[in-house]
Amino acid sequence: MSRLGLLLALAGLAAALALIAQQDLAEIGALLATAGFGLVLAALAHIPSMALNGHAWRLLLPRARRPSVLAMTANVWIRESVNGLLPVARIGGEIASYRLLRGEGVAVAPAAASLMVDMAISILSQLAFALLGLALLAWAGAGIGWGGIALGALAGVALAAGFILAQRADVLSRLARLLNGIAAGRFPALEAHSARIDRMTRRLWRVRGAILGCFLWQLAGWAAGALEIWLALYFLGFPVSAAEALAIEALIQAVSSAAFLVPGALGLQEAGFLGLGLLLGLPAEASAALAIARRLRDLVVFLPGLLAWVWAERRMAREAVAA
Question: Of 9, 100, 140, 316, which has the highest C-beta tally within 10 A?
Answer without folding.
Answer: 100
